[in-house]
Structures are given as C-alpha cells and as structure tokens.
C-alpha cells in the first residue's frame, strides 16, 4: 500500500517528496501512534537526540511496540540514525516541511479556491456511486461462476479506468477478474483507493508524467478541506488531465471549472467510520457524519450468515466465499462450507482478507472465534508446506547466547522456526539485519 | 522439532499484536487556559503571548496527527469559564462568517491551521479584555473550567466510541485552590474514572493540587520558568501531545515527589497531617469541640 510504495522510493525521490509540507502531513498521519509521538519528540529538538534518551521515553528499542514504531520510521526514511554518536534525528527535509506546516509558514502549495461549496454527504455519495460501479463491473465479469446471473445490470466503464484496471492486473485479458482482483474486492475502501492510485502512478512514468509530481498532487488533494471548490484553470496542464481522470475514479468531483476532493485521502479510517454508514444503511443518509459504523452482516456460530443488503455488489462479494441459501428483498442467508471457503481460497483470496471483510461489516462486536479459526484452518489445509526465504542461525557458542538471541527474534516477531536442542533458528531475510546487530551488541 | 504442531500459533498469529500497535484511535484534546487579568503579570514568568505562540503550534500538531482528531479551547477568568473554540461546533459558524466577510482562503490543511489559530487567538483576546473591563478578580479555582471540559469531552466520547480524551491545563500564577478543594478533587476523580489524562503546564508557583491531578490520571505535570521560553514548543509537542492510547507504552515525564497535602474541610487550610472522619471521610484540622463531624454530624466516641 501507500507506505509500502514509499518505502521503495530511493532517497533522492523521498527528499523531493518531503520538500512538500502537505506530503509530510499525509505521511505523518500514516504512521503508527507511537511513531507519531516519536516524530513529535524530535520535531522541535534543537540538536540530534541521543538514542538512550529516546529509549527512556519509549522503552528499549528491542521491545515489540517500539521496535515496530522505529522500524516503520526507518523504512520510510524519516528517522536518521548516526551510529558514531548514537543519536537520532529526523530527515532534514521532513523536519523543515513539517515545521513549516505546523507553524503555518508560507507555502505556495494551495490551489486557487473559488469559494464554492458542496455538501460533504453529496460528495461521499458521488464517490460511492463511481467506485461501486467500478467494483460492480469487476464482480459482474466473474458472474458466470457464481450462479448469480441476472443480478447485475451491464455497467459500462470509462475506457481510462478499464485500462487502469487491466494494467493493474485486476482484470485479465478478456476483462475477466483475476485473483488479484478478488483480493482487491475484499479490501477496505481506503486500501482500494490507494492501491489503484499507486497503479496509476506506476503507469504514469510510461506516459511521460513525473510520478513524484503526481504523488505531490495527491498529497495536496489529501490535505484539502472536503467540500471546498478549487479552480481547475489555475492548474498546470499535466494536472488538468489528472483531475479529469481522478474524477472518473470518483476521487475528485469535477463540475464546470471547479473541482472538489471527494474523499479524504489522508484518512485511513475513512472507510470504517464515514463511508460505511452511507453505503449500507439507507437510514444514515443526510443524518450527518456522526453515524457510527453499523455492520450489515450477522455471523452465527453454526456457520450461518445473514446479510441485510440488497446491493448486488455486496451480494456478489459474499458469494465469493459462502454458499448462498436464500435471498429476500433486503436479506440474504448464506452458509460457510468447506467447499465454498476453498473455492474462495483457491481463487487467491486469503483467510485474513475474508475475516477482515467480515469484521469490518459485522454487526455488534467481534466475529465468533470458532468461525474465524475455522476459516483459517481451511486455509492451513491448503498449504501444509510453507516456503520462505530466510536465514538460518546456528553454531551458537552457549545455550545462554542462543536463548538470548532467539528470544529477541521472537520478540520482534521474526522467528519462523527453532530447535532448542541443536541451537538453531530460522528468520526471514528482512529481519536478519536486526538480529545480527543484536548479536554484535551482545558480544 | 519444535514446530510439529503449530496450528494454534498459526491461528493466533497476526491477530492481537498487530492490531494493538497499529490501531489508531482518534483523540479529543481540551485545553484550559487561565486568563485571569493578574495571572500573567509576574516579571519572572513567560509572557502569555509567548505561551500562546507555542500553544497554537501544539494545537495544529494535534489536528495534524489524525484527521479525526478534535479539540476544544476553554478560557476562564474571574467571570467564569467559557468554551472559546470547539471543533464540534466551529465548522458551520466559521464558514458562514467567512462567506459573510468575503474571505476566500486556499483550502489546504495549512490554511485551515491559520484560520483556526486566528479564531482561537481572537476569542482569547476578547475574554481577556472582558475581564479587564469589568476589573474582576473572582475565583481562580480550576474546578469550574475542569468540569465544563469534562462534560464537553464526555458528550463527544459517548457519541463516538473510538474517541479518547485528554486535557491540558495551562495554569498561571494566582492562589492555590484551597477554597474549592472538594469540587476540585471531585473533578480530578471524575477524570480518573473516565480514563482522561490531565496534563498540566504550570507557569506560576508550584501547585500541589494540579500535581495530584496529573499523578492520579497518568498525566504529566511540568513547571516552566522564564529560561524555558525558547524550548516551549518542544516541551509541549514532546510531552503533552502523546495520545491517550499510546500512554500505556511510554514513560511520561512525571514529578517524582508529588505534594499530596489535603485541605481541611472546615477551616480551608492546607494540611500535612489531619484527622479523617471514619464515617464520611472528610478531612479536619482538629476534632470539633462538640465531638460531632461537621459534615455528616456523626457523633464521635
């Protein structure tokens, strides 16, 4: 997702990106909570902060929660570590831009505002309609296999989006949905939007557009206040085209010469709290944004599932992993079976995705644990062998050293396999560096 | 092999751990500012405007952390406490004013910050002016504003379950809260019960009850003198900005020796050692002459 994409960017590109205060604000919002506090601790520090003094605040870097926060900050290149002096500081461009943003320093980042205003509920509806027609198209392309024919009206999709979907490998050659596409359907809205936007970025390079420029534009869009109109004519030519294509996706709303951000790109919770309410509960319409997420699915411990929906999209998505027993005007009754789950799993959907989807749409508290476990067990049935690239640690001098290091590996969540008798353990490649560092510190 | 049957581990994997450290609940920050006309007159203090400069950056930072974050600013002077700004009510009114005044701002987040800062500062100025004009020196007790803040916060938390609250008290000189001891302690215990940390930025002389407030609610109590003026933003952002959900993972800056002294219910004097009624737990400097508790009228042996 967005952070994974940013992690792959080289230092030079990241520096360019961090020169924009809006980009820094969006990146800040993406961070886990503790990482945000760490950034805030370093932001106005006048000198580099010693590692030890930060550890006093967060607890040892080796402990689980702070290890996660620090590793995220490091991989996004926000945190700079100086090994010689054992100090930490923020990426200079990031620090400067974020200071500018928070102290309301002058930037030339804004768009030209027109003063025109649109109701946020209208924008949310617009976005939902566009986005769902796209998802509908994807689902209907797989309809034959789901015995639900007659459910979908044939939707026509803008060629630009169609091309984007097939370039992103969400749709195959015959415009039929791929296994990536199935996974895409089950993701939260925020993830879906950014997944598609990042594919757009990847294609942009081929179209002679500068990805950093587009990303910066998206970040600026992400810091816009919802419902405020911005002038299109003030934009450079490249961005004008971008705006029309984003309008097709339902990310911005375009009317005459004015555009509005239709969703909050910087808000990772937008799915669960705001859109879900207007998407599934007709009663929520117009009653403001404070409506709590009301799930429409009820799952019982006897593997029955009841879904109060009439949306063809939701029905098709449910049809991906459960067998549908009955349909009424606004109610769907289905059942999880081994067969239905395996069908979904073999088309590339993971157990976690199913569970996540159910969780975010489930009404009233958590899913029954038996169901969660069973779905996972069905997946485990499919892959009895697991293959992972990694590094084997062995030939420890003493049991004490072995225990210390393997426990550390376990603490940071890297341990895949261990054997205490032969003093060996196995970790994925990406964590090996952390562990070698730990071993070096130990000796 | 240790991993022959790791089914249980496989099932448990990635459930609690990831969610716990990633889940990002939004927070509601209430800032209570002491705006007494003679609260900021002391020469050895940092000036109010200096504090407000840092405070606005701090408030911007709070809004920047999470798009669902909300805040309210409360000011109190001798005339009482008032909500100067609240994101729950501000949106609509501010927009209407803007259109009326013909202001067309560029709508990025930074512009919003600026607009918000100006709105907060102007209402603070108005409240100071009001106190000056009427020349009042009423109660400096923090209990009133604190209960206003808590009720404001409580309403929002009830509306939105993922919302957590915290309160920052910006305190100036002025007497301690001896006169409103019971009310103050009650609000502190309410905050404790709601799980709302009370942070204190004290720019005046040491205050024992605010120390206790921070101590009881897992907040931070910091005292600032003139030499801290330059680093004020840093102190604010590094300590008071820590969101309530994160607090259990970090070590907050706290005072090691908190002054736990209490106040006599009858004479309103601050006590180190006193008597406690065994029935109603009220605190007394000395046993009343008639051997009766002054609060619950229990007869002592």
From TrEMBL, chain A:
Any single GO molecular-function term of the entry would be:
ATPase activator activity
Highest taxon of source: Eukaryota
Keywords assigned by UniProt, alphabetized = DNA damage, DNA repair, Nucleus, Transcription, Transcription regulation
Entry keyword RNA-binding: no
- Domain Transcription factor Tfb2 C-terminal residue range list: 373-440
- Record localization: Nucleus
One of the GO BP terms on file:
transcription by RNA polymerase II
Q: Pfam families under this entry?
A: Tfb2, Tfb2_C
InterPro entries named among the record's database cross-references = Tfb2_C, TFIIH_p52/Tfb2
Chief location of this protein within or outside the cell? nucleus
> GO terms for CC?
transcription factor TFIIH core complex; transcription factor TFIIH holo complex
Q: Which Gene3D superfamilies match?
A: 3.30.70.2610
Free-text function comment from the UniProt entry: Component of the general transcription and DNA repair factor IIH (TFIIH) core complex which is involved in general and transcription-coupled nucleotide excision repair (NER) of damaged DNA.
Q: In which family does this protein belong, per the annotation?
A: Belongs to the TFB2 family.
The name on file for this protein is: RNA polymerase II transcription factor B subunit 2
Automatic annotation (TrEMBL), chain B:
GO MF entries: zinc ion binding
Q: Which GO terms describe its cellular component?
A: transcription factor TFIIH core complex; transcription factor TFIIH holo complex
The answer to whether keyword Transcription regulation applies is yes
Q: Which GO terms describe its biological process?
A: nucleotide-excision repair; regulation of DNA-templated transcription
InterPro entries, alphabetized: TFIIH_Tfb4/GTF2H3 (IPR004600), vWFA_dom_sf (IPR036465)
Kindly give the Pfam families that the UniProt entry links to this protein. Tfb4
| Keywords from the UniProt entry | DNA damage, DNA repair, Metal-binding, Nucleus, Transcription, Transcription regulation, Zinc, Zinc-finger
User: In which compartments does the protein localize?
Assistant: Nucleus
The entry describes its oligomerization and partners as: Component of the 7-subunit TFIIH core complex composed of XPB/SSL2, XPD/RAD3, SSL1, TFB1, TFB2, TFB4 and TFB5, which is active in NER. The core complex associates with the 3-subunit CTD-kinase module TFIIK composed of CCL1, KIN28 and TFB3 to form the 10-subunit holoenzyme (holo-TFIIH) active in transcription.
Give the record's family classification: Belongs to the TFB4 family.
Protein role: Component of the general transcription and DNA repair factor IIH (TFIIH) core complex, which is involved in general and transcription-coupled nucleotide excision repair (NER) of damaged DNA and, when complexed to TFIIK, in RNA transcription by RNA polymerase II. In NER, TFIIH acts by opening DNA around the lesion to allow the excision of the damaged oligonucleotide and its replacement by a new DNA fragment. In transcription, TFIIH has an essential role in transcription initiation.
Identify this protein by name: General transcription and DNA repair factor IIH subunit TFB4
The species this protein belongs to is: Starmerella bacillaris (Yeast)
């Amino acid at each position: 997702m967005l952070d994974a994409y940013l992690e792959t960017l080289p230092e030079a590109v990241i520096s360019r990106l961090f020169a924009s205060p809006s980009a820094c604000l969006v990146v800040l919002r993406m961070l886990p909570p503790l990482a945000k506090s760490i950034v805030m601790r370093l932001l106005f520090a006048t000198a580099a902060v010693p590692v030890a003094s930060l550890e006093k605040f967060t607890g040892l870097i080796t402990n689980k929660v702070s290890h996660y926060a620090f590793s995220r900050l490091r991989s996004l290149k926000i945190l700079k570590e100086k090994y010689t002096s054992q100090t930490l500081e923020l990426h200079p461009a990031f620090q400067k831009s974020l200071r500018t943003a928070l102290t309301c320093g002058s930037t030339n980042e804004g768009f030209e505002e027109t003063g025109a205003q649109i109701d946020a509920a209208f924008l949310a509806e617009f976005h939902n309609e566009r986005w769902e027609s796209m998802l509908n198209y994807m689902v209907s392309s797989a309809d034959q296999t789901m015995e639900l024919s007659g459910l979908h009206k044939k939707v026509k999709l803008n060629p630009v989006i169609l091309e984007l979907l097939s370039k992103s490998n969400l749709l195959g050659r015959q415009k039929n949905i791929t296994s990536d596409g199935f996974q895409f359907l089950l993701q939260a809205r925020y993830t879906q939007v950014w997944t598609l936007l990042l594919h757009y970025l990847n294609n942009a390079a081929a179209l002679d557009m500068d990805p950093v420029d587009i990303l910066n534009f998206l970040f600026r869009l992400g810091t816009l206040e919802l419902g405020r109109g911005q002038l299109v004519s003030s934009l450079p030519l490249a961005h004008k085209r971008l705006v029309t294509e984003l309008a097709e996706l339902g990310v911005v709303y375009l009317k005459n010469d004015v555009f509005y951000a239709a969703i909050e790109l910087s808000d990772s919770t937008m799915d669960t709290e705001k859109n879900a309410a207007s998407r599934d509960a007709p009663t929520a319409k117009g009653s403001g944004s404070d409506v709590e997420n009301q799930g429409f699915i009820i799952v019982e411990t006897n593997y029955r599932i009841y879904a109060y929906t009439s949306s063809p999209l939701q029905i098709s998505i449910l049809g991906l992993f459960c067998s549908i027993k009955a349909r009424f005007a606004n109610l769907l009754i289905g059942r999880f079976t081994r067969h239905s789950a395996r069908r979904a799993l073999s088309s590339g959907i993971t157990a976690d995705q199913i569970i996540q989807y159910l969780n975010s749409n489930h009404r009233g508290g958590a899913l029954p644990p038996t169901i969660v476990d069973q779905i996972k067990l069905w997946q485990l049935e499919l892959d009895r062998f697991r293959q992972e690239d990694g590094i084997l640690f062995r030939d420890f001098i003493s049991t004490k050293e072995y225990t210390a290091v393997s426990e550390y590996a376990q603490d940071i969540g890297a341990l895949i396999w261990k054997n205490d008798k032969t003093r060996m353990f196995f970790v994925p490649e990406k964590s090996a560096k952390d562990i070698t560092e730990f071993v070096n510190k130990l000796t | 092999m240790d991993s022959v049957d790791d089914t249980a581990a496989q099932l448990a994997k990635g459930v609690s751990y990831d969610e716990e450290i990633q889940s990002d609940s939004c927070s509601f920050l209430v800032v209570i500012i002491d705006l007494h006309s003679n609260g900021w007159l002391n020469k050895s203090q940092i000036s109010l405007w200096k504090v407000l400069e840092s405070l606005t950056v701090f408030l911007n930072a709070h809004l920047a952390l999470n798009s669902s974050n909300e805040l309210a600013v409360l000011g109190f002077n001798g005339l009482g406490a008032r909500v100067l700004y609240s994101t729950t009510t501000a949106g609509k009114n501010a927009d209407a004013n803007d259109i009326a005044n013909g202001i067309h701002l560029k709508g990025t987040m930074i512009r919003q910050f600026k607009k918000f800062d100006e709105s907060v500062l102007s209402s603070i100025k108005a409240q100071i002016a009001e106190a000056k004009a009427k020349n009042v020196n009423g109660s400096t007790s923090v209990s009133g504003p604190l209960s206003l803040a808590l009720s404001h916060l409580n309403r929002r938390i009830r509306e939105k379950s993922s919302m957590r609250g915290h309160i920052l008290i910006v305190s100036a000189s002025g007497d301690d809260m001896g006169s409103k001891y019971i009310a103050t302690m009650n609000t502190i215990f309410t905050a404790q019960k709601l799980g709302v940390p009370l942070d204190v930025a004290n720019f005046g002389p040491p205050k024992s009850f605010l120390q206790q407030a921070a101590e009881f609610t897992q907040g931070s109590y910091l005292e600032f003198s003139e030499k801290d003026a330059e680093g004020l933003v840093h102190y604010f952002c590094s300590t008071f900005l820590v969101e309530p959900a994160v607090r259990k993972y970090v070590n907050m800056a706290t005072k090691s020796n908190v002054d736990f002294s209490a106040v006599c219910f009858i004479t309103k004097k601050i006590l180190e050692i006193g008597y406690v009624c065994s029935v109603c737990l009220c605190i007394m400097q000395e046993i009343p002459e008639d051997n009766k508790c002054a609060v619950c009228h229990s007869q002592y042996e």
